[in-house]
Write a structure and sequence with these properties.
This protein has 171 residues and is mostly helical. Helix content is 61%, strand content 0%. α2 crosses α3, α2 runs parallel beside α4 and α3 crosses α4.
Length: 171
């Protein structure tokens, strides 16, 4: 980050350069891995794993309820396949979301129903990702570093030698 003391915006209270985007449950601790970052990752991994296991038990009880209700093998198989397929798709979409932004809010809203049904896949993706980094950290870090590089590049062209600049062309 740029030094605040040599920034002309310090008198206005504006930040000196781009600011990191906070990640849910991690804030901006992902940037320097400070402020309890490691403890948050461990807690997040344990919490997502515990939620996935608890969710699997809830689904097991729901399946047993179908068996008690004698709904038939076809309905039971359909329910199991629906949750398995939705969980696999939700895992894949969640995992891909850690590495790239969705193109629009409509894309995110169209996946909400699928992710709600396949919630075990979403929890599994969060658990596995949190073993390596905060979910979405790689994407946020790449965006932040690109913005910082662009900021410094623009700043150096503004404060550089005016005589070395190219003269503006007349139209």
């Amino acid at each position: 980050m740029a030094d605040v003391s040599d920034d002309p915006n310090t008198s206005t209270g504006l930040p000196a350069g781009p600011q990191p985007e906070p990640i849910r449950f991690f804030g901006t601790t992902w940037l320097n891995h400070d402020g309890g970052y490691a403890l948050r990752r461990v807690g997040f991994a344990a919490g997502s794993l515990a939620a996935a296991v608890a969710s699997a038990f809830v689904l097991k009880f729901a399946y047993e309820g179908l068996e008690i209700g004698n709904v038939g093998g076809f309905v039971s198989l359909t329910v199991v396949l629906m949750f398995a397929i939705c969980s696999a798709i939700a895992f894949t979409k969640t995992w891909e979301g850690f590495g790239r932004r969705l193109s629009s809010a409509a894309d995110e809203s169209s996946l909400k129903g699928l992710k709600a049904i396949g919630f075990i896949g979403v929890l599994a993706a969060y658990f596995i990702r949190s073993l390596f980094e905060a979910p979405g950290e790689k994407l946020h870090r790449a965006e932040y570093e690109a913005a910082t590089t662009q900021f410094h590049r623009r700043r150096s062209t503004r404060t550089g030698n005016p005589a070395a600049r190219q003269p503006k062309r007349k139209k």
